[in-house]
Amino acid sequence: MDIELARTFLAVAETGSFLEAAKRVHVAQSTVSLRIRALEQQLGRSLFDRSKTGAALTEAGRHFQRHAQTLARTWMQAKLDAALPAGMETVLAVGAPSSLWDGFLTGALPGLRRALPEVAVRASAMASDALVQLFGQGGLDLMVAYRPKAAAGLAVEQLFEDEFVLVSSDPDTSTDPFGTEYVLVDWGPEFRADHLLVLPDIRTPGFQLDIGTLALQHLRNVPASAYFPKRLVAADLRAGWLRRIEGAPRFGYSAYAVISEGQRGEYAGQAVQFLRQYALGGGTVERDEAVGGV
User: Fold this and answer.
1) Which keywords label this protein (predicted)?
2) Axis crossing angle, helix 212-221 with helix 230-239, rounded to the nearest 10
């Protein structure tokens, strides 16, 4: 089977739209239609119910979805393996939003490489939406994310709880922490939705950043306030240059590791168990300790 047929099928399944799928795989909508029709002819089954509102998977489509994910992942893995250096058996593609690299995965990575010396690691940091898209297309073996959507064929394991707290670098306690110097950090769609729900009056703050480390550096340079995972700023709070805003809303999220069900017994499954043990051992407590590894 042409791998592009599987990739196109997955794009339609994930977006529910031939038009949106065309944008995702960078072809014309007519090409998407031709590919899906060719795939349905090969399988002898209709994979989508088409309507004016979009495209929904049929029962046959749902059954085929996990096989398409396996095909896409196998092809991606084959391309990576073909370029492996001597002494390496395979490549493990790991992806997460920057908030979960900072203070967790960056610290876990050295120990993971020691635990799996025969595995080359390809690490990616990206926005949650792009992360889910790449994982669905088979571009990642292991995804670490907040509140991943449950789906057939996926193995999901909770790693730890993250708490986002409001902190300020302004020594003046009379300053409004949600005033003109408040920085809205984009910690992902979950945080954005909860922030809008809990703090509806702060729709367009004066300054927005999508990378947490840049926001932290901004607070070093300018008296300002922002939300951060508590584990990231614990040392800074102790050092005294940051202070926590007591009484401000807090946001809690569980971090999960996600792999395909078929990879439980493979290197991806071993990596998940390593990350779980790393988290249980306190690797997420604070940035400075986590970077030291296991």
Assistant:
1) DNA-binding, Transcription, Transcription regulation
2) 20
For residues 33 and 22, what is the distance between their CA atoms, to the nearest angstrom? 9
The candidate with the shortest Cα–Cα distance to 241, out of 170, 289, 173, 177, is 170
| pLDDT confidence of residue 286 | 44
pLDDT in the model for residue 251: 96
Selection from 168, 166, 150 nearest residue 158 by Cα: 150
- pLDDT at residue 252 is higher than 50: yes
Which uninterrupted H or E stretch holds 125?
strand 119-125
User: Per the structure block, which two tokens stand in for 146?
Assistant: 């907040």
DSSP string of 196-209?
HHH-TT-SS-SEEE
pLDDT digits (tens, 9 = 90+) for 101-120: 988 999 999 999 999 999 98
Tokens at 150, concatenated:
């449950």
Q: Is the pLDDT of residue 291 over 70?
A: no
What's CA 294's distance to the chain center, in Å?
22
Provide CB contacts within 8 A for 269, sequence distance 6+: 155, 259, 263
Contact 265, 90 (CB under 8 A): no
pLDDT over threshold 50, residue 64? yes
Task: Please state, as a whole number, how many other Cβ atoms lie within 10 Å of the Cβ of residue 133.
Answer: 18
Q: In whole angstroms, what is the distance from residue 284 CA to residue 292 CA?
A: 11
Domains of the chain: 3-65 (1.10.10.10), 162-252 (3.40.190.10)
Length of the chain: 294
Task: State how far the Cα of 256 lies from the Cα of 272, in Å rounded to an integer.
Answer: 9
CA separation for the pair 101, 52 (Å, rounded): 41
pLDDT at 176 over 70: yes
